[in-house]
Every structure is written in structure tokens, then in C-alpha cells.
Amino acid sequence: MGHSQLIDTLDIAIFNALANVHTATIAKVIKVLEKTIDVQPVIARVVNGESKPLPIFTKVPPVFMQGGTSYTAHPIAVGDYCLLILTERCFDRWYGGNDNQAPSEFRMHDYSDGLAIVGVNPLSAALTIPQVITQIGDGYQEGNWEQVGDYLHTGKRTQTGNYDQTGDKTQTGDYIHNGNMTINGSLTVNAGAGDTVVVNGVTLEIVAGDVIADGVSLKTHTHPGDSGGTTGVPN
């Protein structure tokens, strides 16, 4: 074998070896299970000059942001794209709850050992990088929440636990509160003419600097006098 032939043979061997070293690829969510997802890579392999789609990978664990007992988890939908990361060794024993164990199989960079980071989008659906922390869609929170700075949320939000906020809060839309409310400080209600406040079924209507409670004016109402007639208006 000549020198050039040896180089060609080594190049082919290296290429074939690298072609089977799987690191990461883009995949689409095909099915959402309780704790795992099924995904299918969307970048096909080329085998003998032909494009071959890769099969569906089942029961892939998704990656969420977590620290201690705190975590942020988001819904995953069929059709979402993800970054499928292939670990260098079989992680079956770790996933089953055993640390520091030899791999149950000696496969390396294999398609069987994938973790999915959901939230990768093609250019046509790419998210605009926001100026503040932004959440679009429904949210559920259990536990404490502390916020310092700007935060934009669009959609339904359910919270169980304490909520501490430092800074201003502006809300556009209806507000429903079930339970007691304590206000330490002044309360200002900027209501316009015709706006109403309902307290235990009693309607308070704001009319040109006056408050009308079930048709009775706060500023001009009178009462029956002790000796007949009526009292004057409040002063």
C-alpha cells in the first residue's frame, strides 16, 4: 500500500468513526409522557449517498432548571423542538438512582443516552430576546416567590405560597382576590365618573366627586330629624 493510499484509508476510518460519535442534534417532540418525551431528530443522516431519517427516540428525560428543591418546569407540547444531547456513556444506572456505578452497557456516544432541552426554534419561530424577564402563557407556582426588578407575565398564573415583591407593580386587567387583605399605608382609588365599587352587594358609584351608595349621595344625603323634618346635608 502506497503512502497516499494509507492516508486515504486512515481518512475513511476516521470519518466513519466520527460519523458514529453522536454529541447533539435537533429533534422534534412526538409524544409527551408523564416524566419523559418521545422525540425524533429532524436532521437526517446520509448513508451511502442517501438521506435517511433517524427513528423516534422514546422516553427521553427533559432538562429543567433546578437548584435544591426549587425548579422551573414548563409544559411541553407535541411539535416543540429540542436540543437532544447524547451523553458519552450509558446513564441507565444513574437514571435508576445509582451514582458512581460502572455503565450497564459499554456503548459510547449512543443514541440511546439522550437528554432533551426543549425550547430551540428555527429562525421563522425564533423568540425575540426581551429586555426584562418575560413569561408568556399559563403558569403555576408552589412555594415562595421573591422578585426584584421588572417582570412581564402574559397569561393565567396560579400561586400557592408566599409572594414578596420589591418595586412597583402595574396590572392591566381584572383582579380577583379571595381572602383577607391588609394594607399598611394609604390606598388610593382613581375611579372616573360612572365607575362603581361593590361591597357586600352595595354598589358605590363615583359621580363628579361624590359617592352614591345604592342611590344615596354621600355628600348630599339627609336624615329624619329628631323633632320632625330632616337634617341638613353633611358638612
Q: CATH topology of the largest domain, anyone?
A: OB fold (Dihydrolipoamide Acetyltransferase, E2P)
Q: Class of the largest domain in CATH? A: Mainly Beta
Helix count from the secondary structure assignment: 2
Oligomeric form of this entry? single chain
- Beta content comes to 25-35%
Instruction: Work out the helicity level.
Output: under 10%
**Integer tally of domains:** 2
Low-confidence spans: pLDDT under 50, at least 5 residues? none
By CATH, the architecture of the largest domain is named Beta Barrel
Largest sheet: 5 strands, antiparallel
Mean pLDDT: 85
- Sequence of secondary-structure elements: HEEEEEEEEHEEEEEEEEEEE
SS class: mainly beta
Topology of this structure?
Layout: H1 3-19, E1 24-32, E2 37-41, E3 45-47, E4 50-52, E5 57-60, E6 65-67, E7 70-72, E8 81-86, H2 92-95, E9 114-118, E10 133-136, E11 139-142, E12 145-148, E13 151-154, E14 157-160, E15 163-166, E16 196-199, E17 202-207, E18 210-213, E19 216-217
Parallel strand pairs: 10-13, 11-14, 12-15
Antiparallel strand pairs: 1-2, 1-8, 2-5, 3-4, 6-7, 8-9, 16-17, 17-18, 18-19
Explain what the structure shows.
The protein has 235 residues and is mostly beta strands. It folds into two domains: 3-122, Gp5 N-terminal domain (OB fold (Dihydrolipoamide Acetyltransferase, E2P), Beta Barrel); 189-235, no CATH class. The protein is built from two helices and 19 strands. It has helices at residues 3-19, 92-95; strands at 24-32, 37-41, 45-47, 50-52, 57-60, 65-67, 70-72, 81-86, 114-118, 133-136, 139-142, 145-148, 151-154, 157-160, 163-166, 196-199, 202-207, 210-213, 216-217. The chain has a five-stranded antiparallel β-sheet, with no helix packed on it. A four-stranded antiparallel β-sheet has the order 16-17-18-19, with no helix packed on it. Strands 3-4 form a two-stranded antiparallel sheet. A hairpin with a 2-residue loop joins strand 16 (196-199) and strand 17 (202-207). It is elongated and about 130 Å long. The mean pLDDT is 85.
